[in-house]
Write a structure and sequence with these properties.
Blueprint (H helix, E strand, L loop, with lengths): L3 E5 L3 H13 L3 E5 L2 H11 L5 E5 L1 E2 L2 E2 H11 L4 E5 L4 H9 L4 E4 L4 H14 L6 E4 L2 E4 L4 E4 L2 E3 L3 H12 L4 E2 L1 H8 L9 H15 L9 E4 L3 E4 L1
Parallel strand pairs: 1-2, 1-3, 3-6, 6-7
Antiparallel strand pairs: 4-5, 8-9, 9-10, 10-11, 12-14, 13-14
Helix pairs in contact: 2-3, 6-8
Length: about 220
């Protein structure tokens, strides 16, 4: 089961882009926009949440109140997201028990590093995905083949996660392009996709010329087993 993140944020564009990014990194994401909805969701589902990404300014309250309520009843890790980078906001958030504080605008890769660090520090169960003899630790961002670490580029890793979270399904090239589109704006075209699938196969397949993990389905796309 993937790590589950609750995103408490009132900016619809951030919700859309950040949810998409987190999903591509192997995290399940649930989003709510206000203090009331956040507290109600946490009260009913706290045991199923691994981490809360929490904005300071909310539709009907503020993130400080949500953080205080969370920390009063659980050890659920909280990372604040806010454009308020002033010292008072940072200190207030940390004094309330927040595990980290990331100012907006933030780089997605930096945020991902912070999330993984907090999950490791809090001892949350790591999310493990497997494809054949490939083992993917999405919390640590680590990929291994038969116990040996494999080093992938950001796009190769993104592509592998798409296959791992859609194991057994046929994925068209169009679908893959949509899935690996980088929210930071990196352009990926059809030719680039071909290159990255080839590179990924060279790193994860025992025989890249006769792939057993990522197979081509002629005329339809690819399927991972």
């Amino acid at each position: 089961m993937n790590n589950r993140i609750l995103l408490v944020e009132d900016d619809t564009e951030i919700i859309k882009n950040l949810s998409m990014f987190l999903r591509k990194e192997g995290f399940e994401t649930i989003s709510v926009r206000g203090q009331k909805d956040a507290l109600e969701y946490i009260e009913e589902n706290a045991a199923e949440i691994d981490l809360v990404l929490l904005d300071v300014s909310l539709e009907d309250g503020n993130g400080f109140s949500v953080c205080a309520a969370i920390k009063a009843t659980s050890d659920l890790p909280v990372i604040f997201l806010s454009a308020s980078g002033d010292e008072y906001s940072v200190v207030t958030g940390l004094d309330l028990g927040a595990d980290d504080y990331v100012g907006k605008p933030f780089k997605p890769r930096e945020l991902m590093s912070r999330i993984r660090s907090v999950l490791r520090r809090c001892g949350k169960t790591l999310s493990i995905l497997e494809l054949g003899d490939i083992r993917i630790d999405t919390a640590a961002g680590n990929v291994q083949k038969k116990g040996q670490e494999i080093f992938l580029s950001a796009l190769e890793y993104r592509l592998l996660l798409v296959f791992a979270t859609n194991k057994g399904k046929i994925l068209s090239r169009t679908k893959l392009l949509q899935e690996i589109w980088d929210v930071a704006g990196e352009f990926v075209n059809d030719n680039t996709l071909t290159v990255y699938i080839k590179r990924l196969r060279q790193k994860i397949e025992s025989d890249p010329q006769k792939p057993k993990i990522i197979k081509t389905v002629r005329g339809l796309g690819y399927r991972a087993n």
